[in-house]
Amino acid sequence: MQFDWRKGEALLAVLESGSFERAAASLHLTPSAISQRIRALEEEIGQPLVLRTRPCLATPAGRKILLYLQRSRLLEQEWRAEMARENEGWLSVPLALNHDSMATWLLPAMRDCLQRERILLDITLDDQSRTPALMEAGRAVAGIASQPETLRGCRAEWLGAMRYRLAASPAFIARWFDGGLTRQTAQHAPLAVFDRKDLLQWQVLRAAFDLAPTQLSCHYLPSSEAFLRAIEQGLCYGLLPELQAGQAFAQGRVVDLLPSQPLDVPLWWHCWDLQTPRLERLTQAVCAGARASLLQTDPDRVALAPARPLP
Questions:
Q1: In CATH, which of 1.10.10.10, 3.40.190.10, 1.50.10.20, 3.40.570.10 is domain 1-89?
Q2: Domain 163-264 classified CATH 2.40.110.10?
Q3: What is the pLDDT of residues 35-69, one digit of tens each?
Q4: What is the DSSP string of 162-225?
Q5: Among 18-32, 123-137, 153-167, 292-306, where is mean pLDDT lowest?
Q6: Gap between the Cα atoms of 262 and 259, Å rounded
Q7: Looking at per-residue confidence, does 303 or 173 come out higher?
Q8: Do domains 1-89 and 163-264 have the same CATH topology?
Q9: Where would I find the beta strands (DSSP E) of 16-116?
Q10: Predicted confidence band of residue 83 (pLDDT cuts 50, 70, 90)
Q11: Disulfide: which of 62, 64, 156, 218 matches 49 by Cβ 3.0-4.6 Å?
């Protein structure tokens, strides 16, 4: 079957915009014309490609074609950029990244490459465990993940481990842990949790005190900067990345509650095996920055517990 790019363009517009109406407006067509093109493509493929919901979603077959269309568009963008004049040709790259990497080492690692290669970032921030799903859904072409298992056609580059320490301010310790950090005090003191996908706090408290998520009193603070500030200001205790909170530890604004039990979170860079030259150079820049910033250890010795959401 020879692929009809007009039909593919309609499918891409619907799945990225979430509706036939917005897709029609972006392509200067009528919703009926968009619907006819997608229906014709579905008949050729022999499977439904779009769930007519609000917003419209891809079926499993639709996701496969979506990934193909997005990668083809990215290759075309780079080709056009290479053919353009020196001061033109920005390439927009969708990435799936975790908050703590963005707040610490990642932007400095990418900075020179982004400027030199004229790359624009289109970032989805989420937990590192979600990266493969975001890539499969077509929302990213590369990203940081906490597991080495990849989608078919992708590869994983070991970045290193980000070390976290359970921390609290001296004032918080005086109020809640005056008699020491114990199972009972850890259970009743307010704990900082990034969001309900954040399993890191629970992993440390489960290992130290066999506490379950339902036994914790939590603040949900979905901002890396606010997370650190809340702990510094004595509102709660929680896990802080050494890269982010090194100065706070050194100056005594926060104290390591479990100095012998840090948590090392493994990080891999997931990307397609077949990348454009500029994306390959971005991958090389990310890996080099990670080697300079993250804990370099044997990845087989750094493992996270199975994912289980907080209530």
A1: 1.10.10.10
A2: no
A3: 999 999 998 888 999 999 989 999 999 998 988 88
A4: EEEEEEE-HHHHHHH-TT---HHHHHHSEEEESSTT--HHHHHHHHHH---GGG-EEEE---HH
A5: 292-306
A6: 7
A7: 173
A8: no
A9: 50-51, 57-58, 91-97
A10: low
A11: 62
- Asked if the model's pLDDT at residue 80 lies above 80, the reply is no
Structure token digits, residue 36: 């006819």
For residue 190, give every residue at least 6 positions away whose Cβ sits within 8 Å of its Cβ, in sequence order, or none: 217, 218, 219, 235, 236, 237
Q: Is the dihedral of CA 90, 95, 99, 101 positive or negative?
A: negative
Among 166, 159, 154, which residue's Cα sits nearest to residue 256? 166
What's the token pair of residue 188?
């009743």
CATH of domain 92-162+267-295: 3.40.190.10
The DSSP string of 234-296 is: TS-BEEEEHHHHHHHHHTTSSEES-TT--EEEEEEEEEESS--HHHHHHHHHHHHHHHHHSB-
Contact 101, 267 (CB under 8 A): yes
Give the Cβ contact number of residue 17 at 10 Å: 17
What span, in angstroms and rounded, lies between the C-alpha atoms of 67 and 69? 6
Q: Which of 63, 65, 7 is nearest to 34 (CA)?
A: 7
β-pair partners for 162: 265
